[in-house]
Amino acid sequence: MSKKRTIDAFFGTPKPKKTRVEGLAGDAVPTGYSTHRAYPFPIARLPARLSAALAAAPAPGAGRAIADQPDLDLLYFEPYVPRPAAADELFRFLRAELPFYRVEYDIRRGGISAHIRTPRWTTVFGIDATSRFSAAASSATNTESTGSGGGTGGEGDDDVHIVDAHTGARVQTAGSGGGIVKHYDKYAPRPIPGCLDELRRSAEAATGCDFNFCLVNYYESGADSISYHSDDERFLGPRPAIASFSLGARRDFLMKHKPGPEQKQGKNDAAKPLKLPLASGDMVLMRGPTQANWLHSIPKRSGKNEQDGGRINITFRKAMVKGGTENYYNYNVGAGPVYRWDSVNREMKLWNP
Ligand SMILES: O=C(O)CCC(=O)C(=O)O
Ligand SMILES: [Fe+2]
């Protein structure tokens, strides 16, 4: 029996007589909801046993360094989230509880325009380092409500606003009304919900890095992919550290050195392409000179490997300036409709509140 079928057999049949929440794996019961007016629906907090699994995450330095190639610096936790049970439960939880988008956009390159359909589901939370969510935001995102989404005790998400990270002064945004719109006028940034913030805090402890953004990809089958790119945008600053988690189906993560003048000089002849078969629960920290010099991708899979179950990828990053916030919401939320996992039909479904 394949590993996947074993996991399905273990989690596929919920235990009878326990309170069960639609979309949650097995007998998991949420411990409350994160709410915010920019969320399309309240987002469940982690069941206690997943919180416990993340709290017991690897100690700093537990990862294996991969730095034996020019300009490459990876730290590979294999796994980070214990597998199969915790990693697979976290996969099912996040697929069921997060809003997803299928972003489309137009590009113009060299006078030619093209319409791009992102070949995977995406979502994003966070705000760049020039701003933060007010104290009311953190209480709103930790609201112990029972699912109505309205919060409790008057700590409604209406009090949540964005403030300057240094002065604490309120940042004038599209949603805050009254006067000239100055910042974040295209998208209302969303605080990282509790369920992903627990993983963010765990990753910060394990890596010693700071993260203020969480990007999520859902590859529903082998037909979904991400093409070769590097996460080297200027708004991440030089030598960015990116923590990348894998949950669900195993997919190959390919890396190759960027072509460049150095290669012609022979310096990078030794840089061989890399293939990491990322499994559920794995985490790869990419840091140092990696983004400036290497490309990475998740190629499509075909034939018998195409329908091998979905995979979620979560990356934590630190955007330094406001342009990063707009860029991330542009390409991971966009202007299209919201989708949510339908656990009966086992597919993403348009969310119509
Ligand atoms: O899915 C993955 O492992 C990689 C995702 C990625 O490279 C990205 O979101 O920038
Ligand atoms: Fe990437």
Automatic annotation (TrEMBL):
List where this protein forms a coiled coil.
none
Under PROSITE patterns, the record lists:
FE2OG_OXY (PS51471)
Its domain of life reads: Eukaryota
Biased composition regions of type Low complexity, renumbered to the chain: 136-146
Q: Which SUPFAM superfamilies match?
A: Clavaminate synthase-like (SSF51197)
Q: Where does the record place the Fe2OG dioxygenase domain?
A: 210-320
| InterPro entries tied to this protein | AlkB-like (IPR027450), AlkB-like_sf (IPR037151), ALKBH2 (IPR032852), Oxoglu/Fe-dep_dioxygenase_dom (IPR005123)
The segment annotated Disordered runs over 136-160
Gene3D superfamilies in the record, alphabetically? Alpha-ketoglutarate-dependent dioxygenase AlkB-like
Q: Where does substrate bind?
A: 232
Which GO biological process entries does UniProt record here?
DNA alkylation repair
Q: Name one Pfam family in it.
A: 2OG-FeII_Oxy_2
Q: Name one GO molecular function term.
A: broad specificity oxidative DNA demethylase activity
Q: Which residues bind 2-oxoglutarate?
A: 217, 219, 229, 296, 311, 315, 317
Q: What is this protein called?
A: Fe2OG dioxygenase domain-containing protein
Task: Report the source organism.
Answer: Diatrype stigma
Lineage at the top is:
Eukaryota, Fungi, Dikarya, Ascomycota, Pezizomycotina
